[in-house]
Amino acid sequence: MSIRVEDYFAPATFAKIKAFADQQETPFVVLDLDTIGRAYDELEGNFPYAKIYYAVKANPAVEITKLLNDKGANFDIASIYELDKVLACGVKPEQVSYGNTIKKARDVRYFYEQGVRMFATDSAQDLRNIAKAAPGSKVYVRILTEGSSSADWPLSRKFGCQPDMAMDLLVLARELGLVPYGISFHVGSQQREIGVWDAAIGKVKHIFTRLKAEDGIELQMINLGGGFPANYLTKTNPLTAYAEEITRFLQEDFGDNMPEIILEPGRSLVANAGVLVSEVVLVSRKSRMAIERWVFTDVGKFSGLIETMDESIKFPIWTEKQGELEDVIIAGPTCDSADIMYENYKYGLPLNLASGDRLYWLSTGAYTTSYSSVEFNGFPPLKQFCI
Ligand SMILES: Cc1ncc(COP(=O)(O)O)c(C=O)c1O
User: Is domain 271-386 in CATH 2.60.40.420, yes or no?
Assistant: First the structure.
C-alpha cells in the first residue's frame, strides 16, 4: 500500500517542507509552524468554551511555545525543566498547570516559587507535599478512566485514582488549606473511541454531585485531558466529531451549570505538522528465497520513533521512488535487535528502493524529537527544524 501525501498535507505546504528538507543531511524533523497555528485555531473554534493547556511534552520546541503563547494558550508542564523553558519564552506562571502527578516535594516548591498555583495530584502523599510546598494552591485530582483498548498510546493505570479516593483527596485538600478545584482525566493518547469521554464525564459528574451534597465542596473545573487525534495510517473521526460529541456529553451531565473546562492537547496540535526525513542505509534479505526485504534506515526506535513500540503508532511513510511495491520490515540503525519499527504490520515499499533513498515519515511532529536518546550507539539526538 502506498500513501498519498495529499491526504496529509496541502501540496504547497509539502512542497515548502520538501524544498527545505532537500538542503539538510538526514535524519531530522521539519515542523511547519503554520500547520500548528491552524490546528490550534481549529481546536479553539471547536471548543470555544474551553481553555487550552498545550502539553509541552509532545514537542518542547521554543518556536512552538512562542507561537502558542502568542495565540493565548496555557501550558501543561511535566517537570521543572519544562517550566524553566516555557518561562524563558515569556509564558506567565498563571498560564501553567503542573500536570504531572509524580513529582518531588522540592519540585513542587520550585513551581510555587516561580508563581505557579495549579497542581494535579492522585495520591495523599503528593497532596500533602503540595499543601506544604505550595500552600493555598488549587488542586485537581486525576481519576482513572477506561479506554486503553481503543487508544493507540494508552495512559491508564499509572496515573489517576478511583473516584472514591478522588473524593477523599479533595476533602483532605480542603483540610490542608488547599483549594479543591476540580477533576482531570486522560482517556489515552490517540483515542479513537469518542464514547470513552462520556463514561469519564459521567464519573466526574458523580464526584461533583456527591462532594457538594456530602461535604459542601463545590468543584469548579474539569480537565478533559488530551487524546484528540492526529492523522496517522489508522483512521479516526475528525476533530469536529470529537467536539460535537464531547460537548453533548458535557451538556447532558452539567446543563447550564457548566464548570470551567480545560483541554490538554499535545499530539493533535503538533503531530500533523512534522515530517521526519530519513535515509535508507541498507536493503537486504535474510536468504536467497526470502520473501520479505529488510529496509534499514538511519532513524529508529532510539532516535525518535519509540512510539512504534508494539507498532502502536503507524506513521504514514512516503518515498519519491515509484513502482511495484513489496512488503518490507523496517528497522533502525543501532546494534539493538529491539530497534525494529514495523514487522507485523506490512508496509509496502518500492522494489527499486535503494541505499541513499529518502523516506518521509509524515505526522511525526509529536513525541519524536523529545524521545530521542542522547547517544545510543553514538548516534546524536534527532535534529528538528521549524519553518
Ligand atoms: C497529563 C497529560 N496531559 C496531556 C497529555 C497530552 O496528550 P495527547 O498527546 O494525547 O494530546 C499527556 C500525554 O502524555 C499527559 O500526560
Answer: no
